[in-house]
């Protein structure tokens, strides 16, 4: 189905959810998000990865049942926690097998009036550059696939890209490697006039604009609906697109204003901040101990 490119007048509303981590999900948070979707009927739901905690069968069963019950078109990206750890054969040869119940939603492009949500895979089975493999890597093949999908859209279609990892290649503070091939990807997506990249993995929300050699690129991160909170309560993003404008509201269980929910720098991973200078949301809700499972 092609997007109706002529219709830019009606505002579109997306719910951007992430890091539900079934196995360590927050039952109140997922019930709240599910009810909001049923009641408010967003045009689409983007779930940017980490559906499970350990990619176990029972975690996938719960995640897939929950996703199938959502009353909206859904795209699901794959997170680093969704690749089987224990079954090495499956990790390398059939890593997506456990997604079978929702295979039509996994890495699915969503075509809305005048706007497409295009997936970008950032999770890999193995990374020869480093261990562990929890951070992102945009392979040439993954980037090619996403660019081909963008280039096939009718001219004038607005584009959002959905990925699990934020694309920032290096952490500003100490130049630590975050997402391999991230800078090149950001530059190319900015050159394609992508409106924003939606991602997860961090467990705190953000809405930042990075400068690239081919122009600015907006990066929007959703928080988590799990009990693995970093520094803010469980949340999801409500994203409203009107013409070329994007408005992001971080909605959460504790009525904290959006500005207080959003971190202003992409940190290394989902662990709570512990070092001075680590980005911490002003709500200051850093858990007294690290999340029980990483
Ligand atoms: Fe996560
Ligand atoms: Fe992750």
UniProtKB/TrEMBL annotation:
List where Low complexity composition bias occurs. 277-287
Which keywords fit this entry according to its UniProt record?
A: Hydrolase, Iron, Metal-binding
InterPro entries referenced in this protein's UniProt entry, alphabetically: Calcineurin-like_PHP, CNP_phosphodiesterase-III, Metallo-depent_PP-like
Pfam families on file = Metallophos (PF00149)
Checking Gene3D superfamilies in the record gives: 3.60.21.10
State if Plastid is listed as a keyword. no
Domain Calcineurin-like phosphoesterase, residue spans: 13-204
Q: Give the transmembrane ranges.
A: none
Q: What is its EC number?
A: 3.1.-.-
Superkingdom, taxonomy of origin: Bacteria
Region: Disordered, residue numbers? 268-294
List the Gene Ontology MF annotations in alphabetical order.
hydrolase activity
**What is stated as this protein's family in its record?**
Belongs to the cyclic nucleotide phosphodiesterase class-III family.
Q: What is this protein called?
A: Metallophosphoesterase family protein
